[in-house]
Amino acid sequence: MNETLNVLKQHRSIRRFSGQPVEQTLVQEIVRCGQHAASSSHIQACTVIQISDPHLRDKVAHLAGDQEYIRSAGTFLVFCADLHRAARIGSRGNQAFVAGMTEHFIIATVDVSLFAQNCVTAAESMGLGTCYIGAVRNHPQEISDLLHLPEQVYPVFGLCIGYPDQNPDLKPRLPLSVVLKENSYDETKDAAEISQYDQQMAEYYRNRNASQKNSRWTQEIAALVGREARPHMRSFLERRGMNTR
């Protein structure tokens, strides 16, 4: 066991911050760590928008579910999948950009995810807390307009970073045997394992130090996949010139 493994396995989403600003030198170092994540073909298809203007951050927070921790975090970043930069480079080299390819869209989105997770690990290793904000996709066009995002760029998620003002319980994860398979997708024992995990999660929900509730993991997941999830995203991405073929 080493400190990196400890940091990774102690991840929790922080939704209450002290209000202390995060020093800009730390923000820059965190983003530098993000830049060292793996990148498909080294395209580096990620751009990070740091929102330092409190009025702009308030507008983004309002569009992203009015989650107060977006406003109170020491800093707030929006991670964007960016094919615009590559398109401009191609045009300078007299190479036409082939727009709308689903594979390019996947590459850029994966690049952003890897980049951001490096940032989270770096921040948490410094004693900072983090919380991803997928709700920037609630109103992606409005947020794109606020941030002046060009075509071939879309906001994937936000990230709150700050000094924690809470110590939430560590949420249990699925048994390793459910997610780590050998040679094939063998789910023979998954039902029994998930049933035991359900009991563990029910206990967690009942006894955690904030927002207790009577629920199970399978109940939460069934509700999640049983409803539409941001159906506006397809048409939004098409207007961005992405994911059309």
TrEMBL record:
Task: Quote the EC number.
Answer: 1.5.1.38
Per UniProt, what is one Pfam family of this protein?
Nitroreductase
Q: What is the enzyme's main class?
A: oxidoreductase
Enumerate the InterPro entries for this protein.
Answer: Flavin_OxRdtase_Frp (IPR016446), Nitroreductase (IPR029479), Nitroreductase-like (IPR000415)
Can you name one GO molecular function term for this protein? Answer: FMN reductase (NADPH) activity
Q: Which domain of life is it from?
A: Bacteria
Species in which this protein is naturally found: Acidithiobacillus concretivorus
Q: Would you tell me the protein name for this molecule?
A: Oxygen-insensitive NADPH nitroreductase
* Domain Nitroreductase residues, every copy: 8-163
